[in-house]
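Repro:
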Amino acid sequence: MKRISITKYRRTLSDRESKALSELSYRNKRIFTLEDIKDLVEKPKNFLDQLIRKKWILKIRRGVYVIVPLETGKTGADSYTMHSFVIGSLLTKPYYIGYWSALNYHGLTEQTPSSVYIVTPKPKNSRNILDVHYVFVTIHPRKIFGTEEIEIERRKIIISSPEKTIIDCLDHPEHCGGTEEIAKSIYFSKNELDVKKIINYAKEIGNTAVIKRLGYICEIFQWHDYLDLLSSRKLKSGYSLLDPTRPKHGHIREKWKIIVNAPIEPERWMQ
């Protein structure tokens, strides 16, 4: 018979601990900071360390904690789950959920990413929380636009809009499974996407490689109405890779100054 150590179970709260957690809950502070607890107890850091050991709270990052609900049972924090986007929203500011995570959330891909992608202007190392891997993608502040708010577990979460998600992925295909994956998203979701807005975002993001990739994709799809909105005459000299995640060889499409090193074949996707 397998032995289960009693240390796996969360321990009983003292009266002081119970009152403090009840007060936080009353204040609607299920997710709280060190500052939130300072007026409730003496030596708040020691107090919080004790609650972590007892598995009644979970440390999300420095100075940010979450109360583990009673319904998780004896194991407390060891069996607690929380939506990964909610945790992601607590890890850095400013931020938005983007790339493959947003692509999946908006139903633009059937692929489920193994990580949560968080976009931020502040460099930050990837980390694991509650068995979820969080990848932080650092971008220039001028690229932070085209976001919207969604609500998950009664928390407001910032996420890139469907159209901005497409452009972000064309900007960095390595964060969405490659250019073919994003091309499929555009192709199969055309009726749900505002393609004109995508084109405007492509111009706004400030990376001509995005225009080259989008122009080539629209050409393959024979979307001539949209091609007229994308000027290929003012593209910078030099050639960009259609997919920077793949080997750097392929044929050149001179009009878009792009090296076609990835297949964009809608007829094959329909099989």
